[in-house]
Amino acid sequence: MNKYTHNFIKASRLAHKELSRRNAIHEAGHAAAIYLGNKQKGLPPVYFRITINGIVQSDSQSKRLLGDIYDTYIAKVEGGRLVQNLPTSFAAATKDFSAAQKLAYETAFEADIINLLAGPVVEAKDVAMRNDERVDAGRINVNALQYYDGSYELDVVREYFECFFDHEDLKKRKINEFFLAAFAFVSDYSNWSAINRLADHILADDKLIIDCDEIISVLEDESRFPLTDSVLPNSMSLSGGF
After folding, report:
1. In what order do the strands lie in the sheet with 72-79?
2. Is 98 exposed, middle or buried (0-12, 13-18, 19+ CB in 10 A)?
3. Other CB atoms closer than 10 Å to residue 176's CB: what's the count?
4. Rounded to an integer, what distance in angstroms lies between the CA atom of residue 131 and that of residue 217?
5. Which residues have C-beta within 8 Å of that of residue 109, sequence separation ≥ 6?
6. How far is 32 from 191, CA to CA, in rounded Å?
7. In this structure, are residues 109 and 134 in contact, taking their beta carbons and an 8 Å threshold?
8. Per-residue buried b or exposed e for 128-147, using 16+ beta carbons within 10 Å of the residue's own CB
């Protein structure tokens, strides 16, 4: 094996490890927000799970050189939404609700949005921390979440906004509020540790499905110190747009 091939294999394996880590902590962020975030808001439990889909590298030469370590495993949270079907408009959906019912529905609506944003926010934060970079307004905002596998989540959030808010200025203000709420959730040390524990578990588990009860057990097991936990920055400056 020549030096070029050796360096290629080393770089490819490191890239694979990085992508796997980013995927795992991204989905762990969603799962933690769904379970811990909803619980902290006093919202009812909702079923969700994490599925793992194996994707084998199609390039046979790369596969021969890199071996099984180059197989990619994509984790994905399934379920977890409090609002199962988005209404045409929030006002129309709640016109016959009592004040208490309307507030509960609005709280669930907002929780879903924060839980959607939590995944890419966690990934962005984790990448910055492992690169010893500050997470500030010049580096990360709502629009930047698309670079942390957040395009799908941002599209779904826009669907929520279409039936919830009428004015563009209000949408821009509210998306920043939800972004800050997601960041506040993941920046709590207890939540951050739980997210890292679950990310470790996803990477170490050989099952194709990690069920809800198992996820909750990992998130609540404070005795299991995460292997990849990091010290949180002392200060963060955040801003967003939509």
Report:
1. 72-79, 48-55, 209-210
2. exposed
3. 17
4. 30
5. 82, 83, 90, 160, 164
6. 7
7. no
8. bbeeeeebeeeebbbeebee
First-to-last C-alpha distance (Å) of the chain: 50
Dist CA 137 CA 124 (whole Å): 13
- Comparing C-alpha atoms, which of 27, 93, 31, 242 is closest to residue 155? 242
- The Cα–Cα gap between 153 and 118 comes to 9
In the numeric block, which tokens belong to residue 23? 């995927």
Alpha-carbon gap, residue 199 to 203, rounded angstroms = 6
Return per-residue pLDDT of the chain as tens, 242 residues. 543 333 333 333 434 466 688 999 999 999 999 999 999 999 999 999 999 875 444 444 444 443 444 445 588 999 999 998 898 888 888 999 999 999 999 999 999 999 999 999 999 999 888 888 876 545 677 888 988 989 999 999 999 999 888 888 888 889 989 999 999 999 899 999 999 999 999 988 778 899 999 999 999 998 776 766 554 443 344 444 45
Helix (H, G, I), strand (E, B) or coil at 76: strand
Q: Is 109 within 8 Å of 119 (Cβ atoms)?
A: no
The C-alpha atoms of residue 106 and residue 113 are separated, in whole angstroms, by: 11
Reduce the DSSP state of residue 81 to 3 states and report it.
coil
DSSP state of 58: S
Distance CA 190, CA 21 (A): 20
Q: Alpha-carbon distance 216 to 203, whole Å? A: 16
3-class DSSP state for residue 52?
A: strand
